[in-house]
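Sorry to interrupt, but I need a hand with the structure work. I would like you to pick a protein and set down its sequence and fold. Please put the record directly below this note.
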Amino acid sequence: MRRMLCTLTLFLAVLTLIASPALAEISFFGTAKVKPTYYSNFDFNDDKDDGPIVNEGGLTKGEHVRAEVRLGWKASGDKWKVKMIAEGDIIMEKDTVDRSFYVGAEKEGQPNTGGEFGIERAEFTYSFLPQLELETGWDIRFLDIQTGGLLYGDDHPFLGFRGKLSRQTRYEVLYLPIQNRVNFVTNPPVGGSADSADWRVYSAKLSQSFGQPSEQLPASPFYANRDFGLTLSPIYAFSDNRARDAQIHYYGLEATGQVGPVKPYFEILRADGDFDNGRDISSWAMFAGAEVPVCKAFNPYVAFRFTQGDDDDTDDDVEGWVGITDIGRFTGLMGMDGNILGEDLAQSYGATLYSYSPGRFYNVNSNLKDAAYQKNIYGGISNASSGNNPGQKLFAIGARGDLSGLVDNLLYKTQAFFIWYDNTDNLINVKDSNKDVDDYAGTTFDLQLLYALSKNFSVDYIFSAFVPGDGIEDQVDADDTAMVNMLTLAWSY
C-alpha cells in the first residue's frame, strides 16, 4: 500500500510539472561600493564645525566611510518582467554595521536617517500590447533627467502605463503616491480631512522623435558618422500637495538629440497653482546645453540652468521655482554622483541632497529670520522647499572623455559652475543690513577620474570645491572654500 501511494504521488507530481507553465529563469546581479569621504566647510566657515550633513547613508560630517551594498534579481516571461534590488546604505561604524541603531532611535540628539537593508527598488511590468504596458513598483522614474532635472526624478512609488504608439512615438503616464498617510489615532485628523497629509502627483509625457540615419544626409566630413535626429517631449504634471495645502500644474517641453556633431539639450517649464490660503504660485525654469564630441578623449560642453526667484516674501505671489524634486546631480550633461553642489548644502547655500537649486535658502542663518521666511513651503526633496527662494542662474562649462590612449580604461569628467542668484530681495545681509545681498553666489569645480581595473572592479575619485561668492559671504559672513574628497571602490557582478 505504501509503495502504491508513493508511486501515485510520483505520478501526480510528474503530471503537475508537465501541466504547469515553465518556471522563469531568475538572474542575480549586484554592486558593492565603499566610499571613503571627507567633507569640509559646508558652512563656508573654517572657524566652526559644520552642522549635520545628510547623505544616502544618514547624518554625518567631516571624515567618514559610507557603504552602498545592493543585491538584485530579475525574472521575465513573454509579456512580464519583475526586478527587485535589496540595498543597505550606511555610514560604516559599529552601530550601523551591527544593526544596533534603528529608525526611531536617537543618538547624540540626532535621528537615524540611514537605510536599513531591504527592498530599495522594485519594478513590475506586464505588456498587454506594444502600445499598452502596465508598470508599478518603487523604482527610478523621471520626467526631465535627460536635460536639466528641474522638475522630477526619484524612486517614489508609482503606478502607470507606457507604450510605443509608433516607431517614433512613445508615452508614459504615472500616478505617484509620494506620501499617503492617515492619522489612525484621530481619524479624520482634528482640523483636517483624512487625506490632509497626502501628496500625490499625476504626470504624462509624450516623446516624439524626428530624424533619419546619417547615411541619408549630404556627404560631408561635418556629418560623417553622425546621426541627425531630435526627440521632442511635451510634459505635464499635477502636484496635489495636500500636506502643504498646495496644488500646482506643471507644463513643459523637453528636447534632446543630435544635429551633426552637436548634441543639444533643452527644456522649459512653467508652474501655475495656488495655496489654500489664496497665495498664487507662478514660476518658470529652463535649461539649455550643448555637447560636441570632438574625439574619444575630449567631449566639451556648455550649459545654462535657470530657476526663477521670488522678489517679495510678504506678498501673495509665490514666484520662486520649486519642482516636485530637483535631480540635477544625476542629469546626463551636468550631473556627477558626488560633486559638492549635489550634496547637502542646506545649511549654507540652500540646496539639498541631489539638488542643484537653492530651494531651502530659508535655512541660512534661520535664527536671524522671522516666521515670514518659513512660509510658502511645498515640493522638493522631503516636501520642504520654499516658494520664496532666490532662484538661480548657473552657467556651466565642462568636458569628459576616455583617456585609454594614455592609460587603459581611464575615464574623466571635469566641469566648472558659475552661479548667480536670480533675485536677492528676500535674502538678509548679515554684515550690513542696509545693503542688498550680492547676486553672485559662487563658483564650483569638479574633477572625476574613474579607472576600471577589470569589468568587475573600478576605482573612482572625485574632488569637488565650492568657492563662495560675495552673495554667500554677505549672508554667512564667511568665505572659506567648501570641499569634497570622495573615493569609490566599486565591485559589480
Summary: The chain has one domain: 26-492. The CA atoms of residues 232 and 255 lie 5 Å apart.
